[in-house]
């Protein structure tokens, strides 16, 4: 009798691969945007296999999509502590969550620790070093804003230094201050900044978004990457509403999301970052399928997966255009954050 009772208590162990089946149900729910349902499946899977990397990543994504940022942060931090060599995309998810929470000091601590322990791959060191310096500046700014509130002095700083600072991080802080003031007071300096080829395109996008948010209606000229355009900020679509962006994402939904939603989310993160850098310009020259395939291949390479031939066949590509698109993506990735 006791033996039978014990078997009843422990009957969960008699379902082979239950954690894998729950994981698949959770990933299917994520794909269908049913994030609450995904959390139920993935939390149950995690109870049975607490250290399964894909279960944890799926749960992080589901928490994030539902706005449960503290839970997402806690689980991402826990997952990073696991002895898993393939952790870079977990780190990027963790940092993305911390940025949403404005926890820049934690970003600094995390990246500094990984750099000291030589845990970041060589091809990502520059990227994370830039993010480290960016976060240090933001942490310092947040700390200062808790003790100082000198609006007049800030206005004078903006007016006098945006074109003259020469330090992209200082420029970024000044531009951030503009979002809470009337940008029309600084419009001549903004116009100069948007036309200056030496200025960082990331920061130019920040300015363009402020102009949109403050409903600036007059035409203004922008220059990025040897391209120039005259735009009316109020007429601009949000980056994610642009046709090219939507088409590329739709292609990736069809080719990637159903088979590997975690890979899809990482590709989408890279596209979001680079489209922000280019905005309001679009990716030029090649078909949407070529760009989708190129981003797919680049993220695969970041994860150590070398299956470009399969991607080439899947998307039916022109090889030269595919290689050139990848080269452009790598070039953009070098300046996804302000150069220090």
From TrEMBL:
Pfam families: TPR_19 (PF14559)
Taxonomy, superkingdom: Bacteria
InterPro entries: TPR-like_helical_dom_sf
Name of the molecule in the record: Uncharacterized protein
């Amino acid at each position: 009798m006791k033996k039978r009772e014990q078997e009843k208590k422990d009957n969960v162990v008699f379902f082979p691969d239950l954690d894998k089946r729950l994981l698949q149900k959770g990933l299917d729910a994520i794909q269908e945007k049913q994030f609450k349902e995904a959390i139920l499946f993935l939390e149950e899977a995690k109870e049975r296999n607490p250290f399964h990397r894909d279960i944890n990543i799926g749960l992080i994504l589901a928490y994030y999509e539902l706005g449960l940022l503290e839970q997402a942060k806690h689980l991402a931090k826990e997952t990073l502590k696991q002895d898993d060599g393939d952790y870079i995309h977990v780190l990027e998810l963790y940092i993305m969550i911390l940025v949403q929470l404005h926890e820049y000091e934690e970003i600094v601590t995390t990246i500094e620790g990984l750099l000291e322990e030589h845990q970041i791959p060589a091809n990502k060191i520059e990227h994370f070093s830039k993010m480290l310096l960016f976060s240090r500046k933001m942490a310092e700014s947040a700390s200062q804003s808790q003790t100082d509130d000198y609006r007049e002095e800030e206005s004078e700083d903006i007016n006098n230094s945006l074109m003259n600072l020469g330090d992209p991080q200082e420029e970024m802080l000044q531009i951030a201050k503009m979002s809470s003031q009337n940008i029309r007071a600084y419009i001549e300096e903004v116009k100069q900044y948007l036309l200056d080829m030496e200025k960082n395109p990331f920061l130019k996008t920040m300015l363009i978004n402020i102009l949109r948010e403050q409903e600036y209606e007059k035409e203004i000229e922008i220059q990025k990457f040897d391209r120039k355009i005259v735009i009316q900020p109020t007429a601009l679509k949000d980056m994610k509403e642009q046709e090219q962006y939507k088409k590329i994402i739709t292609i990736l939904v069809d080719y990637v999301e159903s088979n590997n939603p975690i890979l899809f989310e990482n590709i989408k993160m890279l596209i979001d970052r680079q489209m922000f850098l280019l905005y309001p310009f679009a990716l030029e020259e090649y078909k949407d399928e070529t760009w989708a395939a190129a981003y797919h291949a680049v993220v695969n390479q970041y994860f150590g997966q070398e299956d470009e031939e399969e991607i080439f066949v899947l998307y039916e590509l022109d090889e030269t255009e595919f290689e050139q698109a990848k080269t452009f993506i790598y070039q953009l990735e070098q300046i996804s954050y302000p150069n220090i």
